Amino acid sequence: MASGKRDRDRLGAGTPQGSRGAHFRPVGSADACGCAGEPTLGGAPVRRGGRRPLKRAVIVAVAVLAMCGAGGAVAWFGVQDNVLNTFTRGEIQPSIEEAFDASSTVKENVFVKNEGTAPAYMRATVSIYWEDKNGNQLWDAPQEGQGYSITWGDALTASTGERWIKGADGYYYWSVPVEAGGKTENLIDEVRQTGTVAGKSLVVDISTQALQANLSAGEGFDKVWSASSGLAVGVDGVLVRK
After folding, report:
1. Which residue from 222, 146, 149 is spatially nearest to 190, judged by alpha carbons?
2. Using CA atoms, how far apart are residues 7 and 17, in angstroms rounded to an integer?
3. pLDDT tens, residue by residue, 185-233
């Protein structure tokens, strides 16, 4: 199960416009009552000579009813009930967190948070491009050091520990599952527009996706993201290069 969130901001365009962050009862049956007795005539016992003992007939009838009643009681107390339990997967919900300066020309402290209920692997992409006044993306891309400057987080440049790893597919992967309510370290410390270009606005487009970490082997990271990223799940769930 995967989920995603996108955050797209035009630097220097006032308040950022991007979205914040990216469910037997077995029925007892009474035993049949079978009673053996004297020969009957028309359903009632008879004496020799054809006379019917009415008093005894009544006693036998009461006994038969009592037996049937007892059978019914036994069946009732033998009834069973089953409870059906439905188990559901957890929810994953990545959220892009960030801050801006007063002029909205500096985007700071960009990291990803897991606002779901299950641990998840997180990945993100960063796209920086020019846009015209009508909101159309332009073909010529801004150059780092000219139209903008960017400072990546220390967790991207680290070689050990929990960190961001750039995959073969261009995504940045957080190296361990993020617990519910947890967060990554900064992917970007700061990205800043440098100068202005007539008719152009600098856009910083960040998208993030999450993949539930406690899936079965046929559904998890190695099945879904491993081939494209060049990464695999190693010891204790830590991502390693293949």
Report:
1. 149
2. 8
3. 999 999 998 877 888 888 999 999 999 998 776 679 999 999 999 999 9
